[in-house]
Write a structure and sequence with these properties.
homodimer, mainly alpha, elongated, DNA-binding
Chain lengths: 108, 108
DNA sequence: ATCGTTTATCGTAGATTTGCGATTGATTTT
DNA sequence: AAAATCAATCGCAAATCTACGATAAACGAT
């Protein structure tokens, strides 16, 4: 595209879109599923479960991290990740407010 | 990418990812906001509100439609769109089940 | 100190997304 | 019937995303 128009939208539109985009790939959903299932959550264990190369998984982890859906800390040579449930509930709240006064009726 | 690996993931991962991806652009969120706000919901009115060309808006409408987030019917020369709230509640349910047995505690 | 393990990052290729103008087809309006 | 309006689609350019191998960096074990 000639220009990126994403700056022209409102703040809540961007917040919702960013969260949704982070969730918008099956690999990242699968990562979240794994993190939700396990108590320990090391990168290598996620790599084992997914049909993707280590570098690709690491990239997805970074995206999830940037979007605030997960948190990670270095634990020796390994990296420990976990879900940032706060971000999820914040999103739910934003989403709820966003469609608060919606007209539920269908016009077509 | 060399190969598309999206077929390798589970069904619920794909369902969640597809819904999220459709929601993953501020323009599409803005369209949904406008549809939620209005009773009548004609394409031209959405074009007026967004900082995008008519053809681009039409494309976003098609994506939302394909993902099942909105429905559209032809109304003479115009096109009437509205939100498919059923899809939203279906997503909420899938999402809820997906993270049903999650470990809320943070490990890092 | 060297070796193996673990994970992040870099560079790159190919796919997809985003955006626009132009065009088309269909319907209103005049 | 001609002109104007509305919206979908086509074709294209640019941006972004996805994926991988190679490499680097950081740590633990030997």
């Amino acid at each position: 595209m000639a220009v990126n128009k994403k700056s022209e939208f409102g703040e809540s539109e961007k917040i919702i879109a960013d969260f949704a985009k982070a969730l918008g790939h099956p690999a990242r959903v699968a990562i979240l599923k794994e993190l939700a299932r396990r108590k320990t959550c090391v990168c290598g264990e996620i790599v084992e479960v997914l049909p993707l190369a280590q570098s690709t998984v690491s990239q997805h982890l970074k995206e999830l991290s940037t979007a605030g859906l997960i948190s990670g800390t270095v634990d020796g040579a390994k990296s420990c990740y976990c879900i940032n449930w706060e971000t999820f509930s914040q999103f739910e709240e934003t989403f709820r407010v966003f469609f608060e006064h919606a007209n539920i009726q269908r016009c077509c």
